[in-house]
Amino acid sequence: MNRTVAGKTLADLAFRAAESYGDQPAARWQSEPDRWEEFTYRDLADRVAEFGAGLIDLGLDAGDRVAVLGGTRPEWSIAHLSIVAAGGVHVSVYPSNSAEECAWVVGNSEARGIVCENADQVAKIVAVRDRLPALEWVVVLDGALLGAVSADEVRRRGRERGAEELQRRAAAVDPSDPYVFMYTSGTTGPPKGCVLSHGNYRAIMAANGALDELDGVTSDKDMVLYLFLPLAHAFALLFQLMAFDRGGSIAYWGGDTTRIVAEVMQTRPTHLPSVPRVFEKVYTLAVGSKPADERDRILAAAALGVRVRDLEASGEPVPAQLREQFDAADAALFQGVQALFGGNLDLAITGAAPISKEILEFFYGCGVPLMEGFGMTETSTGATVNTVKHHRFGTVGRPLPGIEARVAEDGELLLKGDNIFQGYYKMEDASFGAVTDGWLHTGDLASIDADGYVSIIGRKKDIIVTSGGKNLTPANLENDLKRSPWISQAVMHGDRRPYPVVLVTLDPETVLPWAQAQGLPETIAELSDHPAVLDLVQREVDAANAKLAPPEQVKKFTIADRDLSQETGELTPTLKIKRKVVGDNFAAVFDAMYAD
Question: What is a GO molecular function of this protein (predicted)?
């Protein structure tokens, strides 16, 4: 698991991996539902050589920016590795971005070319093409379109040209050269293009390898990575790189969010990176939707699992009576939960947004090693992480090897290491994201305990200051509410207001079946103000408020008549809430809660 083939840069990763891993499977994907295909590392290198040489034939010069606009699929990986092998700089564009958002990213990065997944993505670029003076060519992966170069044509040109120049360019790339322009998800204002070098990503990959060594992580299993996160995001990109570096096989999702759990069970991954919402939904199904007495029994069994697994991780003996209770719980609960993740999981990592301590403890106790980490695009993804051997749930773990962390006088978390980015492209920022004397100002408020575990208190920009001067951190209450089986999202509001309130949205996967069984209306809009549903949510709000001091408790709540979404601009592609957009879109709703 700790092997590495990556050189000083990532430009030749595909070719080095082919030399080491040859006919091992590099990628698996579904040609149709439940029909999995694969190609080897040798195939991967051949495809990168062909596509990369074709891009050079289109006119790609070393240092040129090339954008990729598409979903998580093998062709995305091939396009990415081809661009950097040709000495280019990859520019990530989220496939969910609107034409306007695409115009900003492609225009700000001055991309000379763009690789689009299909006709729908090409249409976005066509709609804003007159605002992209630097853009010279468009490649489409699926099919053939007027005004775009087909992937078949790029490959044909690559075969005719040969890969000699591509190999020379890959060898000439320097660790200090830009590797990717990774655009932040833009929770406030337009996305910023983080310039990340080859050396930045090599540093974070090396840090993860060193962490495995320190923890004594070994496995005789072949690495299988199930990947559904957008590869345009730093989190997914890092895991892709580590899989190819270590000879793992990436199982790419089929594109349907409702089939993620089914695909995980089919592919039986060893590694699963995800955002909290996926684990929250599974937790709700396993625990939150059960009657109170059954829920208490499940959580007690999970707590027992935590005790035993912590003893095992530290090398301490497990008392016989405890082992007997554990074995009974394993048969009754743990194996079923593990089966939801394929039963082969070495590590699940959650990041990008907070997750509750109770959910982490539940999965860990059940034998699903779910660990929380912290990082940013500006840190080349990673900065701190919990591990199976060294964890403290409720924190985001300790800094990775080679990374330093400290807290400034105002409580802001500062980070330092070779993984820190090179700055924002054409966009200076004197506050969040500033690097002073090598220290990155993260914009997060944090504390660090005596053992080095970092706890994130909240975003500086998210702190709510009531009109009475009380500082409130929304994350704790919001996370508590999102553990409810009935609630999808929760957004606290109250800046410069007399008291905090909260907007909640209903989870249709649980609320609609419950409503049908009760003979209630069967749409979210109708249920949002139904007395029975208001009573359900009131109980959840009361339980969350009970954990807070009186000034921190929300005084009122409103149920929205729809869920938050990317399409309405309220969620980022990694499902983080854009508070300003929510505040604007629901301004009348929030005002009504203060009307009296």
Answer: ligase activity
